[in-house]
Every structure is written in structure tokens, then in C-alpha cells.
Design the sequence.
């Protein structure tokens, strides 16, 4: 059997992390969570996720800064980074593009938005739908 897709979710909200973990876990992904950018950077090295979802508004290192650090690292620059924000203004989206974000998702998001983002940026990803017996 093939390895599950490693997805990282970086958000200072435990609720958002758990929701994303549940939704993506149901689709057969292995979800690595981090509570802020510093926590995430250490975990990226250890786990090497295939795609990263990062909240824009976080303490210490915000989503834009975290994305910029990932995109300026030669080892990790090709990992797609999807910004998550409750604000969807043009300025926020433009700032996301400046730091190299691959996509901008507005909260609240559902399972399909997460899976669509993964399908758009990870070639060959097919969600494993677990059907209830």
C-alpha cells in the first residue's frame, strides 16, 4: 500500500487543528499539526510534508512570515503552502502572493476546500474515502 499523504496544519487554534486533522484523516492523509511557525519549522524538517496549511494570524511567527521562511529554504521551497485566514481582503491575498503562498483559503473551510487545495497542488493525490459499514 502506498504511503499516506503527509499534510501539515499550522494554527494556534486547537479547534482548527483538530478539525483539519479529522477531515484530512478521513481522506486518508497523515496530518502533522503545529501550534505556531516556530513549532512548524522544526516539524517540517522531521516530517517533510507534501503540502502545508498555515493560519495567517498567529503569535510569534505569523503565517506570512512562516510561509516566507519555507519558500526561502532551498530544501522546502517546492512544498505548496496554503494560507488560511478569516479575512479575505485583496490586501491579505496580495501579501500572501508576495511571500510565495500557493493558495489562500478563507475560514471557515470545509473538507472539500481542503481536499480541492491538495488536489490542485499535489499531483496524483486521490482522497481515500472511508465508507461507513
Sequence:
Amino acid at each position: 500500500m502506498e504511503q499516506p499523504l503527509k499534510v501539515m496544519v499550522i494554527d494556534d487554534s486547537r479547534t482548527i487543528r483538530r478539525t483539519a486533522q479529522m477531515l484530512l484523516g478521513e481522506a486518508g492523509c497523515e496530518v502533522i499539526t503545529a501550534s505556531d511557525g516556530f513549532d512548524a519549522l522544526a516539524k517540517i524538517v522531521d516530517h517533510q510534508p507534501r503540502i502545508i496549511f498555515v493560519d495567517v494570524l498567529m503569535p510569534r511567527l505569523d503565517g506570512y512570515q512562516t510561509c516566507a521562511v519555507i519558500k526561502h529554504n532551498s530544501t522546502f521551497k517546492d512544498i505548496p503552502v496554503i494560507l488560511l485566514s478569516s479575512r479575505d481582503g485583496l490586501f491579505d491575498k496580495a501579501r500572501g502572493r508576495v511571500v510565495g503562498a500557493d493558495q489562500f483559503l478563507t475560514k471557515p473551510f470545509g473538507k472539500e476546500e481542503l481536499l480541492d487545495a491538495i488536489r490542485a497542488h499535489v499531483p496524483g493525490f486521490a482522497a481515500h474515502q472511508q465508507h461507513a459499514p
